[in-house]
Amino acid sequence: MNLRDLDERLVPALARWLDRVLSKLPSPPEPTGPAPLIVRLRRVDDRWTRRGPLALLRDVPQLGAVALAALVLGGAVTVASRTHPPPAAQGTQAPGATIDPGAEADHLGPQIGDKVPAYLRTSRAKLLQIGAGQPDGVVVAVVSFASYRTPAQARDLLGPIPVKRVFYRAAPLPLNQTTARSVAVADIVRDSRKEFARIAGVQSREAAELRKVAATIQNDPVQKADQERDALLYSREAAVLTGPCACVFAVVVRTKLRLLLDLLAQPAVRAIDPSRPGAKIEDFDYSGLLPEEKVTVTGGNQAG
Prior knowledge:
- The protein is an alpha+beta fold.
- It folds into two domains: 3-81, no CATH class; 107-286, no CATH class.
- It has helices at 3-24, 36-48, 53-59, 62-83, 116-133, 151-158, 188-216, 221-242, 257-264, and strands spanning 107-108, 138-149, 163-168, 181-184, 248-256, 269-274, 285-286.
- A five-stranded antiparallel β-sheet has the order 4-3-5-2-6.
- The longest helix is centred in the middle third of the chain and has 29 residues, at 188-216.
- It is elongated.
- The two termini are 53 Å apart.
């Protein structure tokens, strides 16, 4: 809106207002002369500008021009502020706003302290936005599952999508009794089972060592009980990992966006967090969303 638009809007309104004010004033006898309206205006001028601010404006008409200019400027500022609202505060996002696909730094996946519902919404919106623009673009992504799966079940769910890393833990043991781990893989079934067997061996040896220590403790029953309890936990984790372990809760993949968009429709998939197109596996570090985490991301420290 420019000054001409303001003039066209304000001047007629001011004229109508002035006419209403004049119509309420006592009407003097009709003068005899060729210009009755001019005479009426002069009488009004004499009546209202004898003293005060109006008298100053009559004596120094330049002040009137300054006041009118200030009025026009104020109107222009008001119009500009209403037609161009200020940008949203940093850290907030208006509904329907786009997400910058290159905004991630060097991490993909949820981070400790994140709110799970917000993470699910953001990752989904990011995938839909990037995928709509270039469905054949290749991205890195963290795919988190709704429940724990065996390596073979994860492979069957993902289909042709190649897996680069697996996140797992010895479920269904409680979160505070196991550690969430990850391992790079080339073949999800073969390499995951190999990793499970390796960790099971480590835990079994640790359990055996703790039992040896416990057997030597004679005069401290509390310490002896602690050693035996920890040995039992290590043994349980080893037993889960050596069995048909439904332990996988997330994977890292690198594939085309259109395959990830198809995968997003699967009920078994909870979240897909993609990178910018063209990114490489080594560009990021990663984390997966545990199925137990519903409110806040804890990384397995407790059920969120």
